[in-house]
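Subject: two folds for Thursday's group meeting

Dear M.,

Sorry for the delay on this. The cluster queue was jammed most of the week, so I only got both jobs back this morning. I'm pasting them in the order they finished. Each block is the input sequence followed by the predicted structure tokens. Could you check whether the formatting survives your parser before we put anything on slides? The first protein is the one we discussed after the seminar.
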Amino acid sequence: MKNRLPLLTVKAVILVLLLILPLSSCVSAKYTKEYYDLFDTYTSVVSYGMPVSAAIYAELKYYHDLFDVYSENFDPDAPEVRELLRVCEKYTADSDGVFSAALGDYTAMWKQFIAAERPLPTESEVSAVKLSGTQPKYDFGAVAKGYTLDRMVPVLDELGFSGTISIGGSVRAYGSPKIKSTYVIGIADPGGGIRDTMEIAPGQAVATSGNYERYRDYEGTRYHHIIDPRTGYPAQSGVVGVTILCDSAADADFLSTAEFIEPSGRLLEMYNAEAYWIYEE
């Protein structure tokens, strides 16, 4: 995956995890679906050749609770949390600060504004928020979904699971290529409806970041949930959305955020990834 996917305009496609279809070249297998309300988003499991095991939900729920920084039971010293922090620090270093998980104060402030629960933050309020300190406030929303999908691999292998799991804009394919060699993911136009499709193989992952789901249009500007750590404001890069394809769901999550904020493409070769950028017209 050394070549980048085509550069697209705003009317082009953006990933929507709506469609998973069998290919004629693959072994035909029945599948079952389950849907969950986890990670503050829509989560689905599609299993081929066997029912969806209750163990899959239990594992997803475990990580949902583990990485919920807003829960009173959140434990920053849990081994998995410490490992995720280490991964996030690497992402921050690799992106020269374009990505950061230490955005808890910023995300809380902008989330309230997007929900019309507070006035537009002033420059002084934004400037007062600190990204670093002895106890920075974290928000793992940009990477926890993909990181969880990667962490699920041992459990799913033990269960003999073949299929896909999607958490919001992050999806990963698992299992034996003898059961399913490729999965077709529906791709939609931001204006609605499925525009195209893409294929992923077991072991591959895709993730999308965009400004069209959690946002508020206010006085001619769109304010959304993807924060530029360098400014404290929702990123204004001219990008409407970006979709990443690579072999790690966590990396795909990170890259979709970083390449939305700064669409330079410089990180793609480092992570052996491909990307669709969708720009404003």
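Second protein, same layout:
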Amino acid sequence: MGDGETTGLGSRPGPGSGSGAEAGAGTGAGAGSGPGSLRDASLPGLPGRVALVTGASGGLGAGIARRFAQAGAAVVVHYLRGEERARELVARITAEGGDAVAVAADLTREDECHRLVEEAYAWRGHLDALVNNAGIQPVQELPGMTAADWRRLSEANVTSAFCCTQAAAEVMRGQDGGGTVTHIASIEGSHPAPGHAHYSASKAALIMFARSAALEYGPRGIRVNSVSPGLIDRPGLAEDWPEGVARWGGAAPLGRLGTPEDVGAACVFLASDAASWITGTDLVVDGGVGARPTW
């Protein structure tokens, strides 16, 4: 469960969600260079590369963006309404010797998706990795759901990833080394939860979209994968959903909830040379919950 700032719908904790992409427009910047105290030697190195993370102003998205910075990449922090949080993240990365910039865009608009990618590319003259983290996770029972409700979530979670992927592929195909795209899906893409029919369907769509895009973009030097998180911890989660946290802790063979950094490390791996022959796959990051028998 792990989505981010996107369109401002309400949400409840659930697997594969974190902090997704908001929707809006505008830009901000911050810069720094050198490994400083930020570099994490446990991660595959991404020096000289540029990564765009959508929905990165808080929660899961911020953790993913920070992991890319720790791997040595320059990071474009996308936000919509979370400008203050985005700028704080950029300031933190740059203060520790990293390189980052904040850019706002409304990912429910196709033209804004293209503008975001164009600005990310223009910032350092190339774009090597895109992480489609933006999304929403509202809770709504299927019997009362309207077609408008369904479309709104699909636009935020799937169409935004489609538009950003297409835009990124256009710039990646013309550069040395191609590029990588990673969609943040969810274990709910294969194991739905009550009240999440539209959300689960959107995450299943992202997993298949990654496979389809990998098939068509592979010959152009672009690898496409998805990451499916389990329940990701955040401040106040245990208080907001104590029974769910307790169930998860009991079900996970590794005995804990995931962190944004766990998901970020998986994204860094998929964007690195260590994964150069991996495309069209879904990397499950759930602490082993999926291995638990359900009968």
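Two things I noticed about the second structure. Residues 146 and 152 are 10 Å apart (CA to CA). The chain has one domain: 25-289.

Cheers,
T.
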